[in-house]
Design goal:
The protein is of the alpha+beta class and 161 residues long. The chain is built from 4 helices and 9 strands, in the order ααβββαββββββα.
């Protein structure tokens, strides 16, 4: 029982900390969207980050994960997948993004990047934008994603030791 209470306190404290880093108001101001809401991890299954944002229709807009710099390092490495008994590496890195944190890159390779990874000091961020099912286009632009990352980085610096 004590272990589950401690886990709940750590989980809640982590969620409260993450929630202070980016708000629905921030997203509405940067994007011009209205009625942006947060949803808990796992509802829907694509909501797997510290912060999960949806639009007024309940469609996923953005997820934000905050972690140690190892998150950044891992994201930059190619993913290994098993295809017919053969291990293949799938690249995740597209290009360096200047002007954010100590280093940043977008992903995946190809003509549409969905994620932005940023490392600053011992912390890292992963921001992932989603495709609007109506328009079949990203719900947020990469410039909007960068602006939101800047807000998170500024607030993360304010919470540093």
């Amino acid at each position: 029982m004590k272990g589950s209470i401690a886990f709940f306190i750590v989980l809640f404290a982590g969620s409260a900390f993450a929630a202070a880093l980016l708000t629905t108001t921030d997203i509405e101001q940067i994007t011009g969207l209205k009625e942006v809401h947060t949803i808990p991890r796992g509802a829907p299954p694509t909501a797997q980050a510290d912060l999960n944002f949806v639009d007024q229709r309940g469609e996923m807009l953005l997820t934000v994960s905050v972690g140690a710099s190892a998150l950044y390092d891992k994201a930059k490495q190619p993913r290994k997948v098993d295809v017919g008994g053969q291990t293949m590496e799938i690249p995740s890195y597209h290009a360096e993004v200047r002007g954010l944190g100590d280093e940043a890159f977008d992903a995946p390779p190809g003509n549409m990047q969905r994620a932005l990874y940023v490392r600053k000091g011992t912390r890292s961020l992963a921001l992932t934008r989603f495709i609007d099912p109506k328009t079949k286009q990203p719900a947020l632009t990469m410039d909007q994603l960068k602006a939101l990352a800047s807000i998170v980085l500024e607030r993360l610096s304010d919470h540093s030791d």
